[in-house]
Design goal:
- InterPro entries: Cit_transptr-like_dom (IPR004680), DASS-Related_Transporters (IPR051679), Na/sul_symport_CS (IPR031312), RCK_C (IPR006037), RCK_C_sf (IPR036721).
- This protein has 24 helices and 10 strands.
- It is of the alpha+beta class.
- A 5-stranded antiparallel sheet has the order 3-2-4-1-5.
């Protein structure tokens, strides 16, 4: 091995370790490695920047905008709500709901699909006395399965396609190249979820359900009497801003509800102060002269929702800046104009001071927030909004524009299918039409783009080039050939699938794909076989993340709302992962080798 090979291998191992232990945001970790490769001269500026101009990466950016325009209309949401109303049995409901969802996921980004339908499913389940945990893991899994059907079904497919065309000068995938494998995989996955998988799913009450049942544990009411020495002072001046384990979420003043409560809000005689949090510390408040505990309070969590505030349930993203500090240190309340009422992790509420909790990816937060919270932060990288709030008026769109967006997407897909336009040209034209016809504004288009995902992809593509240029990929491929060639080509395909899938479960799907594509291409050269077979293997394996909640972001989105534990994913996802691997490798071996 040369020094450059050893150095790049060391960087990749260090990168995998940082990603595995969630020590920093994935996009910044991968970008940092790219910068090191640039500064050390292993990559030229042109090579380091090539990922940022890669057609596959730019196509993903355009797809974010097109998918955002379709989601904005809310038409798909309305259709699925109506479709669910006629469902009678649990299995029948799963079939009616998840078969169309898998089809949508073949053509739309699966993350907003899961974010959108999580509250819809939760409400539907709660209305019928069904545990949401019976539906939320399947929601994530079917969107992953549907994404394997087409080139645009998931960003992973486009990344592999971009590497084939940009880095290696190959033809890449057509729109339906992956359908040969994706359709059988999706069908087998759906059958498994409707039969065996359904029985393995836990019967958990959702976080919001348990909160509603135990709302007295979260709410305490204090009345301000004439003896309170801080009447006329601000909340901060009265010492009610930083309480031990308690949070002042609302002030009721006659018929007025003041929420969220600001530091500058003035305390008046007769105010009813509504606290939430660690209610066991309420005794500290009772010691304050002039504050009387209302033991018979009728206030519940649902009563906190009013014209100026709403209860919102969010899930912390794996890319959130909130995961490195406590809630207090991150200045959550002032940053988002929202207060954290409770935090849920591993199917349990964290019973400690809210401000001292250091958040982790997958944590579910119950927030009391302003009415504009959903509009402001629906595209936030810090968390996924999954609460069942009505769409704010500013997000609603008339049905004519909604149908136009859907029709435009269908037309573009047809143009790509018959070969008149490439995927990049079709999506660029679609975005131009959407903005030109004022279906979306340029500002909205900018919000729909997930720049952190693009930075991760572009940086990872540069690392892939470094693996090729230093011949590290060739060295690893030689090792795999020496080990696996005596066992046969089929075993080699299984090995590539397994390694890719393992990386996906431990780090991210995009990083796994970028690491494995150079190895797969070098392996094909060594074995003198069609490299497209290994490319398809890597694309499918990198998407098929079912065993952990951290491998794919849709798994993380449903983690908290479903009240799941890590073991639930292992129990339900492992058989599915094995089924998908056997099916995919068998078809790939027959078709391409």
């Amino acid at each position: 091995m040369t020094f450059n090979m050893i150095f790049v291998l060391f960087l990749i191992i260090a990168m995998l370790a940082v990603l595995l232990f969630d020590l920093a945001r994935p996009d910044m970790v991968v970008f940092a490695v790219l910068v090191i490769l640039l500064l050390t001269g292993i990559l030229t500026p042109e090579q380091a920047l090539s990922g940022f101009s890669n057609e596959g990466m730019l196509t993903i950016a355009l797809l974010f905008i097109v998918a955002g325009a379709v989601q904005k209309s809310g038409l798909i949401d309305q259709m699925m709500k109506g479709w669910l109303k006629n469902s009678k049995t649990q299995t029948g409901s799963m079939i009616r709901f998840f078969v169309p969802i898998s089809v949508f996921s073949a053509f739309l980004n699966n993350t907003p699909i899961v974010v959108t339908f999580t509250p819809i499913i939760k409400n539907w389940c709660e209305d019928r006395g069904i545990a949401p945990s019976k539906f939320l893991i399947p929601l994530s899994y079917v969107t992953i399965l549907g994404g394997t059907i087409t080139l645009i079904g998931t960003s992973t497919n486009l990344v592999v396609h971009g590497m084939l065309t940009g880095t290696y000068g190959m033809q890449g995938f057509s729109l339906f190249t992956l359908a040969v494998v994706g359709i059988p995989v999706a069908l087998i996955g759906l059958v498994y979820l409707f039969t065996i998988g359904r029985r393995l799913l836990p019967d958990n009450k959702g976080f919001s359900q348990r909160i509603k049942e135990d709302s007295k544990e979260y709410i305490a009411e204090m009345k301000v009497t004439g003896d309170f020495q801080h009447i006329g002072k601000s909340v901060k001046g009265a010492g009610l801003r930083d309480l031990k384990g308690l949070y002042l979420v609302e002030i009721i003043r006659e018929n007025e509800h003041i929420s969220p409560v600001k530091s500058s809000t003035i305390i008046k005689h007769g105010d009813r102060l509504i606290f939430t949090g660690l209610i066991s510390t309420i005794a500290d408040l009772e010691k304050i002269k002039g504050l009387e505990l209302e033991t018979g309070t009728t206030i519940g969590l649902n009563d906190l929702k009013n014209g100026t505030s709403n209860l919102i349930e969010v899930v912390v993203s794996h890319e959130s800046v909130l995961t490195t500090k406590s809630i207090k240190e991150s200045q959550f309340r002032s940053r988002y104009d929202a207060g954290v009422i409770a935090v849920h992790r591993n199917n349990e509420r964290i019973k400690s001071k809210v401000g001292d909790i250091v958040l982790r990816p997958g944590d579910t937060l119950l927030l009391l927030a302003g009415t504009d919270f959903l509009e402001k932060y629906q595209q936030s990288n810090d968390f996924y909004v999954v609460s069942s709030l009505d769409t704010p008026p500013s997000l609603k769109q008339n049905s004519a524009k909604g149908w136009f967006s859907i029709a435009l997407l269908v037309v573009m897909i047809l143009l790509v299918t018959i070969g008149l336009l490439s995927m990049f040209k079709a999506m660029a034209l679609a975005v131009l039409i959407l903005i030109g016809c004022k279906i979306i504004t340029p500002q909205e288009a900018k919000r729909y783009i997930q720049f952190d995902v693009l930075l991760l992809i572009a940086s990872a593509l540069g690392i892939g080039i470094a693996m090729r240029e230093t011949e590290l990929a060739q060295w690893i491929a030689n090792g795999l050939v020496n080990f696996g060639e005596p066992l046969g080509l089929l075993t080699m395909v299984f090995m590539v699938y397994f390694l890719t899938n393992l990386f996906t479960e431990l780090i991210t799907n995009t990083a796994a794909a970028v690491l494995m594509v150079p190895i797969g291409i070098a392996l094909a050269d060594q074995l003198n076989v069609d490299p497209m077979g290994f490319a398809v293997t890597i694309a499918i394996a990198a998407s098929a993340s079912f065993v952990t909640p951290i491998g794919y972001q849709t798994n993380l989105i449903v983690y908290g709302p479903g009240g799941y534990t890590f073991k639930d994913y292992i129990k339900v996802g492992t058989p599915l992962s094995i089924l998908v691997m056997i099916t995919a490798v068998s078809i790939i071996y027959y078709v391409w080798f």
